[in-house]
Structures are given as structure tokens and as C-alpha cells.
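Researcher: Please predict.
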Amino acid sequence: MPRLRPAHGLLILAFALLAFAAGLWVARSTTPLPPPAWLEDWQREVFGPLADGTLDLGQLHSWQDGALWLTRDEQGAQLSYRGTLGTPDGPWRVEAELVLSDEERGSLQRATGMAPGAPDQPLSDGMLEQLRRQAVASVLLAPSQALSVGRLVASFGPPRLRLQTDRGEAWIYPERGLTLLHRNGELVWLQVVPRESLAH
């Protein structure tokens, strides 16, 4: 058998290293991305109760520090709860809206006189305490740093529905009351509402 020349040996070694690197890349590219470490706790303490329609402001405040704000939307005055979630993936903006009846909105509007376009106003801790039993209508979380939407799919699974919007693609999980919005594979925000809201 002819002996391999040094050049031939180096060529074979180079091919072997290329094959190893390619195999390693394929293995890494097919390995599911891990979900954010904090997500499981939030599903249990916040998302699950909210999807069931049982989450109130007091429960949310005990889990996530924040403040109550007076805001205004197309329908008039509204109450929002805002905070910042610190995670290893960077801070997340947290914003929740409270359930208000038309009568409560009207009363709030008359009491505050908040005009369209007026800046949002922070409310006192005393007001937050008075409204502890007020039901939460929605919770929205938005990352401040780029985060692959695949990391959430690892926890939630594939979406039931996909909708193209001007801001990106919405993935909808009606059974969870959950909507994810992503753009080019990066999460823009996730929002949870009572699942009955997505059933219609």
C-alpha cells in the first residue's frame, strides 16, 4: 500500500475538521432554543389566572412591582398598571389594563376631566390599594433587547393561528388567551387576555 504524503494527510485532516464543524453546526441549529427562565413562573402566577379571568390588580402587584396610571384611549379614560421586569435577557416593559365598565369609565372621565391628547398621569399608592380587587383585562410584555420568538415557541408550542399585520406577524393561542407579535423572527411583544376574549 502506498504511503500517504504529508500533503495528503493534511488534506484529509482538513476534510475531517470541516465535516466535524458542519455536524456541530447542524446539531446546534436543530437544538430547540430554551425558553426564558422566568416564563414558567409567569405562566403559573399571572398568565394562567388571567386566561381564566380571575387575575386582579392586587395579585399582579404582589407578583410584579409597578405603579397605577391614568391614561386615555379612544373610549375615554382608562387605568393602566406599569412596571419593569428585570430578566437575564434584559428588562421587559410590563403594562396591564384594568377592567372598567362604561359607567366606571364615565365616572373616571368626569372626575379627572382628562382631555384627548393629555399626558398620562401617575396615581398614588393609596389609589392602587383601593383598586386591589379590580379585575385585570390584559397584560402586555415587551422586551428591550432582541429575543428570538423561537424561545417562546419552545414553551408555548406552535400557534393555532397566524395573522399578517402592518407591524409584523401575530401568533395566536386562543386556549391560552395569548398573542405573540414578532417581526423577522424577533419578538415585539406578547399579550395575554381572558381566553373568552379570543374565543369570539
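Model: The chain has two domains: 1-31, 34-198.
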